[in-house]
Structures are given as structure tokens and as C-alpha cells.
Write a structure and sequence with these properties.
Largest sheet: none
Order of helices and strands: HHH
Distance between the termini: 41 Å
Number of strands: 0
Number of helices: 3
GO cellular component, one term: proton-transporting ATP synthase complex
Structural class: mainly alpha
Family: Belongs to the bacterial AtpI family.
Radius of gyration: 30 Å
Protein name: ATP synthase protein I
Pfam families: ATPase_gene1
Helix content: over 70%
Keywords: Hydrogen ion transport, Ion transport, Membrane, Transmembrane, Transmembrane helix, Transport
Length: about 130
């Protein structure tokens, strides 16, 4: 029969090896990389916001011109107001996207700094087996 001390040592070594294998096989967290059309979503959203502003302004101007009988006055005025509103919403979207981008960069730098210092990031996933 085998020595009980040797069996426990072997069992501990096996557990250590299994843990290392699990760490190596665990998926590593990766930052979302921009794809080929990464900015297309933002661009289309901005185009739609601008178009919607102009369309709403056109509809309101046309309706008011029909109501008051002043054909091009309200139409022209509200097209310009719709354009201005669309541009304003576009700028707000761009500012929001910029804030999200800066937050992602700061988070990535924080995770990268933790890995460089030998600490694991909050979600785990060190560089074992890399």
C-alpha cells in the first residue's frame, strides 16, 4: 500500500495542476475593439436625428401655413428651426459618445495598469498561459 503522506502530496499537486489548467483555459476578458464599421451606428443615428428634426419642422410649418393661410412663411421658419434642433441633438449625441469613449479608455487603462502591476483586474483573468 502507499504512504498516506505521499497520497496527500500527490493530491495537492494534482489540484494545483488542475487549477493552473483551468486558469489557462478560462476566456480572457478583452476590450471591445472597433470593427470595420464602428462609427457607422453613430453616423446613422446622427443622420436620422437631423432628418427627423427637419421633417418635424417641415410638418409643423406646413400645418401652420395651412391653418393661417400664410403659405411659405411658417414653412421656411420651421424648417430652419427643425434644422437647428436636429443639429443640437446631433451635438448632444456626439458629446455623449465622447464621454462613453473616454470612460472606456479610462477603464481599459485602469485594467491594463492592474495587470502590469501583477494584480488581477476586478473580473479576474490574469495573464496565465499567455
Amino acid at each position: 500500500m502507499s504512504d498516506p503522506d505521499t497520497s496527500t502530496d500527490r493530491l495537492k499537486r494534482l489540484e494545483t495542476q488542475l487549477e493552473e489548467a483551468r486558469r489557462r483555459r478560462a476566456p480572457k476578458p478583452r476590450a471591445a475593439r472597433p470593427g470595420k464599421f464602428a462609427g457607422a451606428e453613430l453616423a446613422w443615428r446622427m443622420v436620422i436625428e437631423l432628418s427627423a428634426g427637419i421633417a418635424v419642422g417641415t410638418g409643423m410649418g406646413w400645418g401652420l401655413d395651412g391653418l393661417f393661410g400664410t403659405k411659405p412663411v411658417f414653412l421656411i421658419l420651421f424648417i430652419l428651426l427643425g434644422f437647428a434642433a436636429g443639429v443640437r441633438v446631433m451635438l448632444q449625441s456626439a458629446a455623449g459618445e465622447e464621454r462613453r469613449r473616454k470612460r472606456r479608455e479610462a477603464d481599459a487603462a485602469q485594467v491594463g495598469g492592474a495587470e502590469r502591476n501583477g494584480n488581477e483586474p476586478p473580473g479576474g483573468g490574469g495573464n496565465a498561459g499567455a
